[in-house]
Amino acid sequence: TKDHGFIFEVDGADPRRTGAVPLTAMGRFQHEAIAVDPKNGIVYETEDAFDRPFGLFYRFLPAKPLGGTGSLRAGGALEAMRVPGLPDLSVVQETGASFDRVEWVPVPDPLAAETPIRLQDFGRKGITHAQKLEGCYWGGSSVYFVSSFARSAEGSAADHYGQVWRYEPKKRRLTLVVVFGPDTDIQLPGESPDNICLAADGGL
Fold it and tell me: 7: number of CA atoms within 13 Å, CB side?
């Protein structure tokens, strides 16, 4: 058997390209979605982990940025997001709450040969986790990503029915844009957001 949990690139414009080549440098974990910064080719990735310690938010720095179809096979560096002093995103319950000086920490073993990435040693400062990281979308100068829900009964530090986060790379700033659920500052219809898209008018 072969290891599973990799990203594959599909060329939708050329059906003759059928070779399934895992992009191993982009990490082996429970992938959900990606978004690409069109200016520099950095790829942001979400991890939909089912149990503690929950998933991470990643960025991949390609060795051949903006190199076109197939260039991601050249490899690159995988990093995980650390928000200083915030080990679990679920505890943030107020829309507009923001965190500056977000850090990106090299992933010790992207192939997760013996230990899942989210369980690996990221040093004494640790790393930032979140339950049910799902959709991811690039819009304007930011990347948006979703946490579908958090349940303290399943190991999260707090409960919510869904969060939408915005990360601004130039400012290294992470902001909670939307939160669903009880005991929050805003009550919105719906719950458990998943996929996400930014409309032309700026709506999510």
Answer: 23
Count of the separate structural domains present in the chain: 1
Give 188's pLDDT tier (boundaries 50, 70, 90): low
Inside any domain, residue 194: no
Count CA atoms closer than 13 A to 120's CA, side-chain side: 22
pLDDT digits (tens, 9 = 90+) for 9-62: 988 787 777 678 899 999 999 999 999 999 999 999 999 987 889 999 999 999
Amino acid at 43: V
Identify whether 80 is part of a domain: yes
Strand partners of residue 81: 104
**pLDDT single digits (tens) 77-93:** 999 999 999 999 999 98
pTM for the model stands at: 0.92
Residue 192 lies in a domain: no
Number of C-beta neighbours around residue 22 at 10 A: 16
28: Cα separation from own chain's centroid = 13
What distance in Å separates the CA atoms of residue 145 and residue 164, rounded to the nearest whole number?
A: 6
The DSSP symbol for 120 reads S
All residues at 6 or more sequence positions from 33 whose CB lies less than 8 Å from its CB, including other chains: 45, 46, 134, 135, 136, 137, 145, 195
Is 107 within a domain? yes
Residue pair 149/158 in contact (Cβ under 8 Å)? The answer is no
E-state strands within 37-154: 43-47, 57-62, 76-82, 98-99, 103-106, 133-139, 142-147
